[in-house]
Protein backbone atom coordinates (compact mmCIF):
# COMPACT_ATOMS: atom_id res chain seq x y z
CA UNK A 1 0.00 0.00 0.00
CA UNK A 2 2.86 2.37 0.84
CA UNK A 3 4.45 1.75 -2.59
CA UNK A 4 1.09 2.41 -4.26
CA UNK A 5 0.80 5.71 -2.38
CA UNK A 6 4.27 6.77 -3.59
CA UNK A 7 3.36 5.89 -7.16
CA UNK A 8 0.11 7.86 -6.87
CA UNK A 9 2.02 10.91 -5.55
CA UNK A 10 4.55 10.69 -8.39
CA UNK A 11 1.76 10.47 -10.94
CA UNK A 12 -0.05 13.40 -9.33
CA UNK A 13 3.16 15.47 -9.28
CA UNK A 14 3.84 14.71 -12.94
CA UNK A 15 0.29 15.65 -13.96
CA UNK A 16 0.53 18.79 -11.84
CA UNK A 17 3.75 19.91 -13.56
CA UNK A 18 2.40 19.20 -17.04
CA UNK A 19 -0.86 21.00 -16.43
CA UNK A 20 0.39 23.86 -14.28
CA UNK A 21 1.72 26.15 -16.99
CA UNK A 22 -0.52 29.21 -17.38
CA UNK A 23 -2.24 29.69 -20.71
CA UNK A 24 -1.32 33.36 -20.90
CA UNK A 25 1.99 35.07 -20.22
CA UNK A 26 2.27 37.06 -17.01
CA UNK A 27 4.40 39.92 -15.87
CA UNK A 28 7.68 39.18 -14.16
CA UNK A 29 7.57 38.89 -10.38
CA UNK A 30 10.70 40.96 -10.02
CA UNK A 31 10.40 44.49 -8.74
CA UNK A 32 12.37 47.66 -9.18
CA UNK A 33 11.47 48.90 -5.73
CA UNK A 34 14.06 48.68 -3.01
CA UNK A 35 13.44 46.34 -0.10
CA UNK A 36 13.10 49.28 2.26
CA UNK A 37 10.24 50.81 0.30
CA UNK A 38 8.01 47.73 0.37
CA UNK A 39 5.91 47.16 3.45
CA UNK A 40 3.35 44.43 3.93
CA UNK A 41 0.36 46.77 3.86
CA UNK A 42 1.36 48.23 0.46
CA UNK A 43 1.16 44.95 -1.42
CA UNK A 44 -1.70 44.90 -3.88
CA UNK A 45 -0.29 42.48 -6.46
CA UNK A 46 2.51 39.95 -6.83
CA UNK A 47 4.81 42.43 -8.54
CA UNK A 48 5.20 44.21 -5.18
CA UNK A 49 6.58 41.13 -3.39
CA UNK A 50 10.26 40.90 -2.47
CA UNK A 51 12.59 37.93 -1.84
CA UNK A 52 11.06 35.93 -4.69
CA UNK A 53 14.31 34.52 -6.09
CA UNK A 54 13.41 30.93 -5.14
CA UNK A 55 10.18 31.00 -7.17
CA UNK A 56 9.78 30.22 -10.86
CA UNK A 57 8.11 32.90 -12.95
CA UNK A 58 4.54 31.55 -12.63
CA UNK A 59 4.61 30.28 -9.03
CA UNK A 60 3.43 33.48 -7.36
CA UNK A 61 0.52 33.80 -9.79
CA UNK A 62 -0.36 30.16 -9.03
CA UNK A 63 -0.19 30.66 -5.24
CA UNK A 64 -1.93 34.05 -4.94
CA UNK A 65 -4.29 34.22 -7.94
CA UNK A 66 -4.82 30.63 -8.99
CA UNK A 67 -4.30 29.66 -12.63
CA UNK A 68 -6.06 27.80 -15.40
CA UNK A 69 -3.83 25.10 -16.87
CA UNK A 70 -3.62 23.98 -20.50
CA UNK A 71 -6.40 21.47 -19.90
CA UNK A 72 -8.74 24.24 -18.75
CA UNK A 73 -8.59 23.16 -15.09
CA UNK A 74 -8.30 25.51 -12.14
CA UNK A 75 -5.11 25.08 -10.08
CA UNK A 76 -3.50 26.79 -7.11
CA UNK A 77 -4.96 29.68 -5.07
CA UNK A 78 -3.60 29.39 -1.53
CA UNK A 79 -4.04 32.89 -0.05
CA UNK A 80 -7.15 35.06 -0.21
CA UNK A 81 -5.78 38.58 -0.07
CA UNK A 82 -5.07 39.75 -3.63
CA UNK A 83 -6.78 37.40 -6.10
CA UNK A 84 -9.04 39.43 -8.38
CA UNK A 85 -10.63 36.45 -10.16
CA UNK A 86 -10.60 33.67 -7.55
CA UNK A 87 -13.02 32.93 -4.76
CA UNK A 88 -13.87 30.43 -2.06
CA UNK A 89 -17.13 28.64 -2.80
CA UNK A 90 -19.64 29.58 -0.12
CA UNK A 91 -20.16 26.91 2.53
CA UNK A 92 -16.97 24.94 1.76
CA UNK A 93 -14.46 26.68 4.06
CA UNK A 94 -13.20 24.45 6.88
CA UNK A 95 -12.46 25.61 10.38
CA UNK A 96 -8.92 26.84 10.96
CA UNK A 97 -6.46 24.28 12.23
CA UNK A 98 -4.36 25.13 15.29
CA UNK A 99 -2.02 27.27 13.14
CA UNK A 100 -4.65 29.21 11.20
CA UNK A 101 -4.48 27.05 8.06
CA UNK A 102 -7.82 26.19 6.46
CA UNK A 103 -9.17 24.42 3.36
CA UNK A 104 -11.93 25.21 0.90
CA UNK A 105 -13.31 24.49 -2.54
CA UNK A 106 -12.48 27.37 -4.88
CA UNK A 107 -13.23 28.88 -8.27
CA UNK A 108 -10.55 30.48 -10.43
CA UNK A 109 -11.80 32.60 -13.33
CA UNK A 110 -15.22 31.00 -12.84
CA UNK A 111 -13.86 27.44 -13.06
CA UNK A 112 -14.27 25.20 -10.01
CA UNK A 113 -11.04 23.55 -8.90
CA UNK A 114 -11.41 19.78 -8.54
CA UNK A 115 -9.29 19.44 -5.39
CA UNK A 116 -9.66 21.43 -2.19
CA UNK A 117 -7.17 24.27 -1.73
CA UNK A 118 -5.36 24.71 1.55
CA UNK A 119 -4.84 28.33 2.57
CA UNK A 120 -2.14 30.17 4.45
CA UNK A 121 -3.52 31.94 7.55
CA UNK A 122 -6.00 34.66 6.67
CA UNK A 123 -4.25 37.23 8.87
CA UNK A 124 -0.95 36.83 6.97
CA UNK A 125 0.00 39.37 4.34
CA UNK A 126 1.20 38.17 0.93
CA UNK A 127 4.76 39.08 1.95
CA UNK A 128 4.45 36.96 5.10
CA UNK A 129 3.36 34.06 2.89
CA UNK A 130 6.42 34.49 0.64
CA UNK A 131 8.69 34.75 3.68
CA UNK A 132 7.19 31.59 5.21
CA UNK A 133 7.62 29.68 1.95
CA UNK A 134 11.24 30.83 1.76
CA UNK A 135 11.81 29.64 5.34
CA UNK A 136 10.28 26.25 4.48
CA UNK A 137 12.36 26.12 1.29
CA UNK A 138 15.56 26.54 3.32
CA UNK A 139 14.60 23.65 5.64
CA UNK A 140 13.07 21.45 2.92
CA UNK A 141 13.30 17.69 2.89
CA UNK A 142 12.65 15.50 -0.12
CA UNK A 143 9.34 13.59 -0.06
CA UNK A 144 9.29 12.02 -3.55
CA UNK A 145 9.71 13.08 -7.16
CA UNK A 146 9.73 16.86 -7.19
CA UNK A 147 7.81 17.15 -3.90
CA UNK A 148 9.46 18.66 -0.83
CA UNK A 149 8.28 19.72 2.61
CA UNK A 150 9.67 22.27 5.01
CA UNK A 151 8.41 24.23 7.98
CA UNK A 152 7.85 27.83 8.91
CA UNK A 153 7.08 28.16 12.56
CA UNK A 154 4.85 25.17 13.19
CA UNK A 155 3.28 25.13 9.73
CA UNK A 156 4.39 22.42 7.31
CA UNK A 157 4.55 23.70 3.74
CA UNK A 158 4.60 21.35 0.78
CA UNK A 159 6.44 22.56 -2.31
CA UNK A 160 6.79 21.38 -5.88
CA UNK A 161 10.17 22.28 -7.38
CA UNK A 162 11.58 22.43 -10.91
CA UNK A 163 14.72 20.51 -11.86
CA UNK A 164 16.75 23.63 -11.04
CA UNK A 165 15.15 23.90 -7.58
CA UNK A 166 12.74 26.76 -8.28
CA UNK A 167 9.36 26.68 -6.55
CA UNK A 168 6.45 25.81 -8.86
CA UNK A 169 3.83 25.69 -6.11
CA UNK A 170 3.71 25.84 -2.34
CA UNK A 171 0.84 25.42 0.07
CA UNK A 172 0.36 24.78 3.77
CA UNK A 173 -0.58 21.34 5.06
CA UNK A 174 -3.90 21.42 6.90
CA UNK A 175 -3.71 19.54 10.21
CA UNK A 176 -6.89 17.87 11.38
Short description:
With 176 residues, the chain is an alpha+beta fold.
List segments where confidence is low: pLDDT < 50 over at least 5 consecutive residues: 4-41
Any idea what the shape is? Answer: globular
Helix fraction by DSSP (H/I, runs of at least 4): 10-25%
What letter string, H or E per element, gives the SSE order?
A: HHEEEEEEEHEEEE
Number of domains: 1
Rg over alpha carbons: 15 Å
Q: How many helices?
A: 3
Tell me the β content.
15-25%
How is the main sheet built?
A: 4 strands, antiparallel
Q: Helix/strand/pairing class, anyone?
A: alpha+beta
Q: Summarize model confidence as the mean pLDDT.
A: 83
Number of strands: 11
Distance between the termini: 22 Å
**Physical arrangement of strands within the biggest beta sheet:** 8-9-10-11
Q: What does this molecule look like?
A:
It is globular, with a radius of gyration of 15 Å. The model is unreliable at 4-41 (pLDDT under 50). It is an alpha+beta fold. A hairpin with a 2-residue loop joins strand 9 (147-152) and strand 10 (155-161). The strands form 4 sheets. Strands 8-9-10-11 form a 4-stranded antiparallel beta sheet. The protein has one domain (2-21, 49-172). It starts with a helix and ends with a strand. The chain has helices at 2-19, 59-64, 126-138, and strands at residues 67-68, 74-75, 86-88, 102-104, 106-108, 111-112, 117-119, 141-144, 147-152, 155-161, 167-172.
